[in-house]
Amino acid sequence: MEMSQIDGRMEGWLYTIRHNRFGLQFSRKRYFVLHDNNLTSFKSVPSDQNEEPDRRASLDCCIRVTDNGRESFFNRKILFIFTLYNTSNHLDQLKLGASSPEEAAKWIRSLQDASQKKFPFPDCEFVSHAEKGLVKFNVSRRSRRKNSVDWTNYSSVNVETIAPDVIAPSPWKIFGCQNGLRLFKEAKDWDSRGRHWDDHPAIMAVGVIDGTSEDIFNTLMSLGPLRSEWDFCFYKGSVVEHLDGHTDIVNIQLYSDWLPWLMNRRDVLLRRYWRREEDGTYVILCHSVYHKKCPPTKGYVRACVKSGGYVVTPVNKGKESLVKHMVAIDWRSWNLYMRPSSERSITIRVVERLAALREMFKAKQGHGFAEFVSGEFMQTKSCLSKINTIPFKKEAKRTDLELVKVEEMEKPSSARNSLMDLNDASDEFFDVPEPNESYEFDSLIDNSPFSQGHSQLKLPSPSGIVKKLQDLANNKKGYMDLQEVGMDVNSTFIYGATLQQDPNLTMPCSWSIADPSTFLIRGDNYLNDQQKVKANGTMMQMVGADWISSDKREDDLGGRLGGLVQEFAAKGGPEFFFIVNMQVPGSAMISLALYYMLKTPLEEHPLLHSFVNGDDAYRNSRFKLIPHISKGSWIVKQSVGKKACLVGHALEVRYTRGKNYLELDIDVGSSTVARGVTNLVLGYLNNLVIEMAFLIQANTAEELPELLLGTCRLNYLDVSKSLKER
């Protein structure tokens, strides 16, 4: 699908994604134009810049963009979805789809820049939530011209986007080279020379492939006929359940002719997660799970993938890609003749698929990847048809409001340019035809996943809808991580002291302070040389932590009576507290709260003082987290990464300003990408040492150098030992 960026405008074909009155999801093709902070849509390519659009909306700092991953639709399109929503009114949102992940990434970045570069607003009028129920910004045309976005610089990749912000040794040791691939094994802390082999070692193959990272990603995700052209292990595969746009459950059956003699056929059931980094790198991660809809198959032995996946990084200006393929697998072989060395040789054979992938790209010269689109999702099980026919509870609620109440609501004049205005109900019956659409509607219905031998579209029964909504309300899931743990109920406790401290780093389920020099931050001359330096200390001292489970969100822990913060407030001392409360949704809401104390007056730290007393838009643009998995599996380290993140741009954050504290309640479940990473981390939590650093980003020479607010080290956390909030 064509997309262009000319003279500060970004334009191209996208799909609007909506639910109709029956709860069925559908897409409509529209031509979108983004100019300054104005987003407009047309039913055809506009003939000139003055043509009146069909729909329009204005973007400001209240607009957020989330990446929803990829979805399939009953007309066999695979789209990469992203959603714009208004933080002051979550019903005001627009879901769009692009035909490729690269197009989606460019639109997401451009929309984010368009909304963020409107801050601060010199000519805006602020209306509080309490007074009007929304936030309204009236920006003058003059300021819009002054702050226009330079889209031509989008292609330039910021150095900070690529380089890690953590100093850590590589855990991989090379042990050979075969078929043009370098072979590595994961060395343990007690095996610095890489000589010892585990029973089920993690093995990685690394090679360069002559193809774009997007084409390689599409090929690796395919479970259709294309996979048989390079994956000699693959027999057939299917998607058991589509969890969200970044996560699914897949079942893959393997050929037996490449396995040792007398070894039974194997299959794997994997939870597969993917994401795209800002520099164009694609990460695909997977590990074994149990699913009630896909029990072990007769005639197959189910192997256990402890961790595995791919990292595809563009090199040579994107013309080639550096591909890493890693696997750690228990083949579940009980035969006495199958020694660990034999299992290891099988795993090495698996990662050698990378050489076959490289040769296929050479033979096709980077072409021939379109057929994966029509082959993959049509082989999925019945769960995909359920996704397209059964409305989600949240989506159904928004659809009802949109179809019934939008005209009845009294809205201020600025609300006429809301995101919902780009979603008109009449669009349900008009779509722009695709260039290659030559099939009749009847044939489409006959071949769709909704119809299996029936001539009419099968709608969900009322009882089926009720059951689905009940399952969503209870947050049930059809799969279970092999390392999943339960919860314990505990008694009352003091906020700020529910997680024990262990300076010796030996006690499980405890916290301590991480070494600040592990993390890299912006130095004095960063604006000129883009260089980061080791942090040499922290502004605040970590004084406590909470590890709590509850059936609801636990906000404003600093304001709870009897807690650590309120004890100091009662004494009237000068101490100021900074609380980071990370909330992880699931069968129970897990809250990890970290307490930092400043002993000197807040006014002595201008940047922190501006952050504490600033508004939410300013805070969202400055608060950074640097993560680091210092001990743990490769799959977890790869999923978390070592790059600083502006938390407020990726997740929803609620700020609570108290007398002697500021608390940040971070909703990890507000992002599909973050939720996928967190679910993966929770499965390995007992075996992880997690380190984090927090800071306020410095953007000007007066604010440099940066200084860490604080660090923490979390040792082998255990969900079953979290304290239950009544």
Chain-wise SSE layout:
Blueprint (H helix, E strand, L loop, with lengths): L2 E4 L2 E11 L5 E11 L2 E5 L12 E4 L4 E10 L5 E9 L2 E10 L2 H16 L12 H4 L8 H6 L12 H4 L9 E7 L2 E6 L16 E7 L3 H9 L12 E11 L2 E8 L10 E12 L5 E10 L8 E3 L1 E12 L4 E11 L9 H12 L1 H12 L6 H5 L7 H7 L3 H13 L35 H7 L14 H12 L5 E3 L18 E2 L8 E3 L7 E3 L3 H4 L2 E3 L6 E10 L13 H8 L4 E9 L4 E10 L7 H8 L2 H5 L2 E9 L2 H7 L4 E2 H4 L1 E6 L3 E7 L4 H12 L5 E8 L11 E8 L7 E2 L2
GO molecular function: lipid binding
Subcellular location: Endoplasmic reticulum
GO cellular component, one term: endoplasmic reticulum
Round the Cα radius of gyration to an integer and report it.
Answer: 26 Å
Tally of separate helices: 19
> Which residues sit in consecutive blocks of at least 5 with pLDDT less than 50?
119-161, 368-416, 437-459, 472-476, 483-492
Portion in beta strands: 25-35%
Overall mean confidence score, pLDDT: 77
**Strand count:** 33
Helix content: 10-25%
Report how far the terminal alpha carbons are from each other. 53 Å
Cα shape: globular
Largest sheet: 11 strands, mixed
The assigned structural class equals: alpha+beta
GO cellular component, one term: endoplasmic reticulum
Domain START: 151-346
Domain PH: 7-116
Subcellular location: Endoplasmic reticulum
